[in-house]
Amino acid sequence: MALLLTPGQWGDAPQMIEVLDRIRVPRPLGGRPRTRPDHVSGDKAYSSRRNRRYLRRRDIRHTIPEPKDQRANRRRRGSAGGRPTSFDRDRYRRRNEVERTINRLKNSRAVATRYDKRAYVFHGTVTAAAIRLWLRSDPPDRT
To answer: Which of 11, 58, 83, 109 is the most buried (most CB within 10 A)?
Structure first.
């Protein structure tokens, strides 16, 4: 859906908004492409005020657990702290599918070791590996 290359020392969570802004899913019958996912899942690292505000503003449902320190701060503030975040435990368990996909992408030696010097070349390498993964995947059951 979307791919963003960053330097190795950068964290993933601050890049969430940029990745979501890059999503463009074409509609089968034409028209404007979809730019808003139905749901987003992430671990506690993605639980920043900035990310949650962005998801609320775009009306994107999400399953991101609230870290203990944020939960304690919200409770300490009382009614001014706001409502607790909703959390779907079953949906959160499926979050590892993304991690497994990244690990399968790294089965490609060129992706795992990054031989490419230029970012645009490496972007093409990762895209080709993702397409290869997609073509090899089992088709969804249509029964």
So the answer is: 58
Domain boundaries, the chain: 1-92, 95-143
pTM exceeds cut of 0.85: no
Which residue in 132, 143, 80, 137 sits closest to 108, CA to CA? 132
| Chain position carrying tokens 């009382």 | 78
Cα dihedral across residues 89, 91, 94, 99: positive or negative? negative
Q: How far apart are CA 143 and CA 140, in angstroms?
A: 9
Mean pLDDT by groups of 10 residues along the chain of 143 residues: 81 89 90 90 88 92 87 82 78 84 89 88 91 82 54
Report yes or no: 3 and 130 within 8 Å, Cβ to Cβ.
yes
